[in-house]
Design brief:
alpha+beta, 9 helices, 11 strands, 32% helix, 25% strand
């Protein structure tokens, strides 16, 4: 099939993302000592949609280098209200003064907060500049207030095909952090630690792309093509000793397969899941 089909933002796309992990922790649970997330009822492993979207954001940020139209809103250690404020500054809307257009109100109800049509202008500016807002949506009602955006791309939790067995292994560092620790150990200077891993897990996440929402946020063919590339390549820029070996096994949309080299077992599995 033509690549124009699965990169067409005017079409609906339902897709499956299959990825695996070997000797690693794909998504630690902070409420369980950072052990791999597990469904207590089925024993299946879980990876949150937030985790997957973080990887997409990192891929876009690295591949586009913050180019205009491909900036990332949800950044590590970012301050969201400051970015919303920047939107209004770029639009020459002074949120400390009364609205210029009387249709937005004769007086500003709350200093520093947008109102009336100003909110739509701020939301449109952010959608145009921030890739992740355009694709995933965002709550922009904090601080200066730019409303809320419902993104066209929605992901489910990834769930392992089979139940997983997670366990901890002991690790040793041949050093200590302080003089006090060295004195306590009499110069032995070792630090014991633990690492949570699972031997192997094959995970499946379901995703959905809405054409009507894409039209509202301004998603382009380039945006959608970049998203598919991210699902396949984001694992290579997110390597970590704690995550083990993670890779995309397949990504298939309702129109065509996205990844290039697909093992036969993945096709069989996909048919099983959709049946």
């Amino acid at each position: 099939m033509s690549s124009a089909i699965y990169t067409d933002p005017a079409r609906r796309h339902d897709f499956l993302l299959l990825f695996d992990v070997t000797d690693g922790n794909p998504n630690g649970d902070p409420d369980a000592g950072n052990m791999p997330r597990i469904d207590p009822e089925t024993g299946q492993g879980l990876v949150t949609d937030v985790c997957l979207k973080r990887k997409v954001r990192n891929y876009v940020e690295m591949s586009k280098g913050g180019a205009e139209g491909f900036e990332i809103f949800i950044q590590e250690k970012g301050i969201l209200n400051r970015q919303i404020e920047d939107a209004y500054k770029n639009l020459d809307i002074d949120l400390q003064k009364d609205p210029e257009d009387v249709a937005d109100g004769k007086k500003r109800k709350d200093k520093g907060k947008a109102q009336g049509a100003e909110i739509e202008k701020g939301r449109a500016w952010l959608c145009k500049r921030k890739y992740d807002i355009r694709m995933f949506g965002a709550v922009l009602m904090t601080g200066p207030n730019a409303g809320q955006v419902r993104g066209p791309v929605q992901l489910t939790f990834a769930r392992s095909v089979d139940p997983i067995t997670a366990f901890e292994v002991s690790i040793t560092r041949m050093a200590v952090a302080s003089e006090e620790e060295a004195e306590k150990q009499g110069g032995d200077n070792r630090t014991m630690g633990r690492k949570a891993i699972l031997p192997y897990g094959l995970y499946v996440a379901k995703g959905f792309f809405s054409a009507p929402f894409a039209q509202k946020t301004g998603v382009t063919q380039e945006d959608l093509e970049l998203f598919w590339k991210a699902l396949e390549g984001m694992w290579d820029i997110d390597r970590s000793a704690s995550r083990g070996m993670m890779s995309c096994e397949d990504c298939m949309s309702s129109h065509t397969k996205i990844c290039s080299a697909i093992p036969l077992r993945i096709f069989c599995l996909t048919a099983l899941i959709s049946s």
